[in-house]
Design goal:
It is built from no helices and four strands. It is mainly beta. The chain has one domain. A four-stranded antiparallel beta sheet has the order 1-2-3-4, with no helix packed on it. The protein binds zinc ion (ZN). Zinc ion binds next to loops. It comes from Metarhizium guizhouense (strain ARSEF 977). Belongs to the yippee family. This is Protein yippee-like.
Length: 67
């Protein structure tokens, strides 16, 4: 994960950390480390994933495996 970055959005100031894919290192979103506005506190510690940056991986079909 990247270093903490201070950003300002329309909802207030934040300190975030960019989150990258463990496989290809592509940036896929961020996590909120600090939240300035108390109305935004619910975001603390939450991840935001940008869906258009995620790859859809279809798992191989399980064939004849009994559990
Ligand atoms: Zn990746």
């Amino acid at each position: 994960m990247g270093r903490p970055i201070r950003i300002f959005m329309s909802t207030g100031g934040y300190i975030i950390r960019v989150v990258s894919c463990a496989g290809c290192k592509k940036e896929i979103g961020w996590i909120y480390l600090k939240v300035q506005e108390s109305s935004q506190l619910y975001k603390l510690g939450k991840f935001v994933l940008e869906l258009e940056r995620l790859e859809i991986i279809i798992p191989p079909a399980r064939t004849g495996v009994a559990f």
